[in-house]
Design brief:
By secondary structure, this protein is an alpha+beta fold. The chain has eleven helices and four strands, in the order H-E-H-E-H-E-E-H-H-H-H-H-H-H-H. It has two domains: about 35-110, Glutaredoxin, CATH 3.40.30.10; about 115-225, Glutathione S-transferase Yfyf (Class Pi), Chain A, domain 2. One of its GO terms (molecular function) is glutathione transferase activity.
Length: about 250
């Protein structure tokens, strides 16, 4: 049976349908926005590794998140995910700590100025290169002498000078007056270096040429939410015992 509706009734029906559709979309978006991010890493091994950068970011912005050791889930969901840490944001799975930090920076409003994106990516890459270069000589703790030689060599200091580079512009943080995703990743990187080579790292940061980096690190760990996290049971060592305290 066909029923003719007057124009006003038809308009009302369409408006109601559209309104319900928009309401459903808004509720769906709100539900997705409220869902906490999930960080995947081997927390049962009692260290955080490269997931600490994303974790510091989420802690500092006050965003809820959960942790999972089911690292096969992201691999099965997205073949581009190779090794932890991983992030699950809604239906999106990501790997690579630098990419995760960059993604979370955009999501939580700490991405920094768009025109500085290239400079920030360079700083993220530098931090990642330094982390890998500082760790590899130890061969997972099997060659501590090689690790000590690296940490007491010129290249270790040179990297710290490079990582300090963005601070020469005079800002309190790497790219301005507030932290960006790069600050959190670099803090995690330096904490890893500090765990591996506490004496060498400490000696470098007392050098006047690295005063800006030293002051920046003090500023970062003093941020209330980061300070609270670092004192909490949720904050695990960055690295495992075999590569701690080498030099």
């Amino acid at each position: 049976m066909h029923i003719e509706l007057p124009d006003w009734a038809l308009l009302g029906a369409v408006t109601t349908a559209v309104g319900l559709g928009v309401a459903k979309l808004l509720l769906s978006a709100r539900s997705k926005a409220a869902a906490p991010d999930t960080l995947y890493y081997y927390f049962n091994a009692n260290f955080t590794g490269r997931v600490e950068g994303p974790m510091l970011l989420l802690e500092d912005v006050g965003a809820p998140y959960t942790c999972s050791s089911a690292v096969n889930e992201p691999k099965e969901a997205n073949p581009a995910c190779f090794a932890p840490p991983f992030l699950k944001d809604g239906e999106t799975f990501m790997s690579q700590s630098t990419a995760i930090c960059f993604h979370l920076g955009i999501k939580h409003g700490v991405a920094g100025a768009p025109e500085k994106a290239g400079l920030m990516m360079r700083a993220l890459g530098n931090a990642e290169d330094f982390w890998g270069e500082a760790y590899r000589p130890t061969k997972g703790g099997k060659d501590k002498e090689a690790g000590a030689a690296y940490a007491t060599g010129e290249r270790f200091t040179k990297w710290l000078v490079v990582l300090q580079g963005p601070l020469t512009s005079g800002g309190d943080y790497l790219f301005g007056s507030a932290p960006t995703s790069v600050d959190y990743h670099l803090l995690a990187t330096l904490r890893a270096a500090q765990e591996m080579y506490p004496k060498a790292f400490g000696a470098n940061l007392t050098d006047p040429q690295l005063s800006k980096l030293s002051q920046w690190m003090e500023r970062m760990v003093a941020r209330p939410k980061i300070a609270a996290f670092l004192k909490s049971d949720r904050c695990l060592p960055v690295l495992y015992p075999g590569v701690q305290g080498i030099a």
